[in-house]
TrEMBL record:
InterPro entries linked: AB_hydrolase_fold, Acyl-CoA_thioEstase_long-chain, BAAT_C
Lineage: Eukaryota, Metazoa, Ecdysozoa, Nematoda, Chromadorea
Protein name: Protein CBG14567
Annotated Gene3D superfamilies: alpha/beta hydrolase
One Pfam match: BAAT_C
GO biological process, one term: acyl-CoA metabolic process
Length: 371
């Protein structure tokens, strides 16, 4: 009898549970589960702008040797010895979410200032919805995976590019702080958003969002994912055309005085991060912020530098534009994948607590060819 894989549902959102059942496997034979992403290239970010569904081949492969005789099992080319296979899909974006590309001068009389550029993900309905701005790191451009998945939980998300995208500056070191204020004022001016926001950033973006909270009181909470404790001469933004003091927080807390009283922080730090000293950064920042009377949540998880939404591919190394070489990001693939689920649910709870819980979106027709 031929083995068979059944997966239910065949299409699902990345945070949803999936049931996988394999029937009629041969008795006393080792079987190995192979799960492969389609469309991943070595050393590069997964293609996610605009968001694409994550497609997998799920297959069982076997070796002809008896289980009791095997001390080491390896399958070098499982496709040649497959028992059964199945393709299924995990959706980053809820099918009826609106993806709105943005390139706006704000305020309208901003003159030659760079336009607010990125993508808004808006749930169905009129809102107002709890609102998040999300930024990436030194790679620049636009990576929309976190934003699309957050929108599927009922948040409005502005995926904000700030360099190396469309008409924005090519060089990170020429980006002005004013650009982020324009983005905050733009997103909070829309009729379906709220006037209090959460800022989320990963890598250098996680460092940058900490700095932004010292300047802009509309930011009510911050989520930093594997950010460092300070900007440096290689990665920073400019303030009125000048490089700010290196380091976000001085020992005497001078920079902290700009924080508003409602500011809350959460830090997601990977124990196996080989790119950023996240354990030291977490300890340093938590001490500075607690001394200033601010609430700071600490989350340590086993994983590498890029902690993305559930089911997103693990990137053990990525070509770094700013360094001009391949950079190791660390993390065991299995533990990193599990940590993506942990970090994601903690992040959603954090946003819901400090922005207000979003209205759950209705279920969708998972088997429709149009979706």
């Amino acid at each position: 009898m031929k083995a068979n894989i059944s997966i239910s549902p065949a299409a699902s959102l990345v945070h949803e549970d999936v049931e996988i059942v394999v029937d009629d496997l041969e008795y006393s034979t080792i079987h190995k589960l192979e799960l492969r992403y389609l469309g991943v290239r070595f050393g590069g970010y997964f293609n996610c702008t605009p968001p694409v569904d994550l497609e997998y081949y799920l297959m069982y492969v076997k070796d002809s040797i008896s289980q009791l005789e095997i001390t080491h099992f390896s399958v070098t080319d499982p496709r040649e010895r497959k028992v059964c296979e199945k393709m299924f899909r995990r959706r980053l974006m809820y099918p009826t979410v609106q993806r709105i590309e943005v390139e706006e001068s704000f305020p309208p009389d901003a003159g030659a200032r760079p336009k607010v550029t990125g993508t808004i993900f808006k749930p169905p309905g009129t809102g107002p919805f709890p609102t998040i701005i999300d930024i990436s790191g030194t790679g620049g451009g636009l990576n929309e995976q976190k934003r699309a998945a957050l929108d599927s939980r009922g948040f409005v998300v502005l995926c904000l590019a700030f360099f190396k995208y469309k008409s924005l500056p090519e060089d990170l070191l020429t980006v002005e702080l004013q650009y982020f204020e324009d983005a905050i004022n733009y997103i909070t001016s829309l009729p379906y958003t709220r006037d209090r926001i959460v800022f989320q950033g990963v890598s250098f973006g996680g460092t940058l969002v900490m700095f932004l909270t010292t300047k802009f009181p509309k930011i009510k909470a911050v989520c930093s994912i594997n950010g460092s404790f300070a900007m440096d001469q290689f990665a920073h933004v400019r303030v009125n055309g000048k490089c700010p003091p290196i380091g976000i927080f001085k020992a005497d807390g001078a920079h902290v005085k700009f924080l508003n009283d409602l500011m809350v922080y959460t830090d997601m730090s990977a124990l196996d991060d080989l790119s950023t000293p996240t354990i030291y950064a977490n300890s340093y920042l938590s001490a500075r912020l607690r001394d200033a009377g601010r609430k700071f949540e600490v989350n340590f998880v086993p994983g590498g530098h890029l902690l993305d939404p559930p089911c997103f591919p693990h990137h053990p190394m990525v070509y770094s534009n700013i360094a001009g070489l391949f950079q190791t990001y660390g993390g065991d693939t299995s533990l990193h994948g599990r940590s993506e689920f942990e970090v994601w649910e903690r992040t959603v709870r954090f946003f819901s607590e400090h922005l207000g819980a979003p209205t759950p979106l209705p279920d969708y027709l998972r088997h429709s060819a149009k979706l």
